[in-house]
Design brief:
The protein is α+β, with helices and mostly antiparallel strands and 149 residues long. It is built from 3 helices and 8 strands, in the order H-H-E-E-E-E-H-E-E-E-E. It has one domain: Hotdog Thioesterase (Thiol Ester Dehydrase, Chain A, Roll), CATH 3.10.129.10. The strands form 2 sheets. It has a 6-stranded antiparallel sheet, covered by helices on one side. A two-stranded antiparallel sheet has the order 3-4.
């Protein structure tokens, strides 16, 4: 007998936004989500508190990294139909150029959604999506054995 699974349920933007509101750091950053079809864009509105180097000025690298991690979590959550919030196994971030004091955008692409682990890539940009300021590659735990996590 083969095991069949139900198709993933549809997660709406309100549910996803509520999940983000429950994360204190996401709330502090003010990250907003836009969903058009199955394409999710995270938007980080600029605030002075997000500057890491006031001499340039440039966004703090941790802010950019957090935006991309949150975007990855949201995209995986959508891809699996809102079953469970994924947990980070590891992430690698390439900072490609300084983030300027303007709004920043991020999109994620789930490259593999397995039974237990998801692989995802995220790019963050400001003026032109083809000219990213940072990129993330990560592995996330989406399902664990009983008691393992």
């Amino acid at each position: 007998m083969s095991e069949t699974s139900a198709p993933p349920t549809r997660v709406d933007l309100a549910e996803l936004s509520a999940m983000f509101e429950a994360v204190p750091y996401a709330k502090f950053l003010g990250v907003r989500l836009e969903l058009k079809g199955d394409e999710l864009t995270a938007i980080l509105p600029y605030k002075d508190e997000l500057i890491g180097n006031p001499m340039l000025p440039a966004l703090h690298g941790g802010v950019v990294g957090a935006l991309m991690e949150l975007t990855a979590v949201a995209q995986i959550f959508l891809a699996q139909g809102g079953k469970k919030v994924p947990k980070v196994i590891d992430i690698s971030i390439d900072y490609l150029r300084s983030g300027r004091p303007v709004d920043t955008y991020a999109r994620a692409h789930v490259t593999k959604l397995g039974r237990r682990i998801a692989n995802v890539r995220v790019e963050a940009w400001q003026f032109d999506r083809a000219d990213p300021i940072a990129a993330l590659h990560g592995h996330f735990l989406i399902k664990s054995d009983e008691g393992a996590v």
